[in-house]
Structures are given as C-alpha cells and as structure tokens.
Amino acid sequence: QVQLVESGGGLVQPGGSLRLSCAASGIIFSFYAMGWYRQAPGKQRELVARIAIDGSANSADSVKGRFTISRDNAKNTVYLQMYSLKPEDTAVYYCNADLGSQSYWGQGTQVTVSS
Prior knowledge:
Elements: E1 3-7, E2 10-12, E3 18-25, E4 33-39, E5 46-51, E6 57-59, E7 67-72, E8 77-82, E9 91-98, E10 103-105, E11 109-113
Parallel strand pairs: 2-11
Antiparallel strand pairs: 1-3, 3-8, 4-5, 4-9, 5-6, 7-8, 9-10, 9-11
C-alpha cells in the first residue's frame, strides 16, 4: 500500500520559515519524481516545486528564491524548505509522487502565514 505522509505544517508569522517533510512508503522512492503542490481556499491546486530522479529541480516563479525542494532517497523523504513566508503562501500543501503512469498524493498539511 502506497503512503505519502506530510508533516511540518503549521502557523507562522510573515517572514518566518517552515520545513515540510513527506515520507513515502510502498514505492521504490528513487524511481519517482517528487513534487509539492498547494491549494488555497477557492483556488486550483498548483505546483510549488518538483524534483526529478536525478535531483534536478524546478519551482514556481512565486516561490523562487524562497523555497527549496530536496530529497533523501535513503530516507524515502522529500522536503520543502520555505523561507520568507508570505500570507499568500497560506494553503494546504500536498506531496506527490509521479512515475508518469502512476501518481500518488498525500493527505496534505496546512500552512498558515499570519500575524
């Protein structure tokens, strides 16, 4: 059974930092591209950052220079380090594992940026 379990969300003040983690089980983690998506209330789910199996990464323009995605294949975990958080970063953040023909999602973790 495939499981993606996100953690690390919470309430943070503007300008603060958080690190999200997503622990995967039931898949050969190193075979999958991993991504972080987010969905704010009333908006569509959008890609935040994605890291390929070779470690190359890309991110949305809105988070460039503030968020960094990384992966640890030995721990079957993908991370999203977030700095300089803004109120508009408030959303539920979802982890995704993608193999093209197969795609799995976590249950999401809430990130709220507010003073």
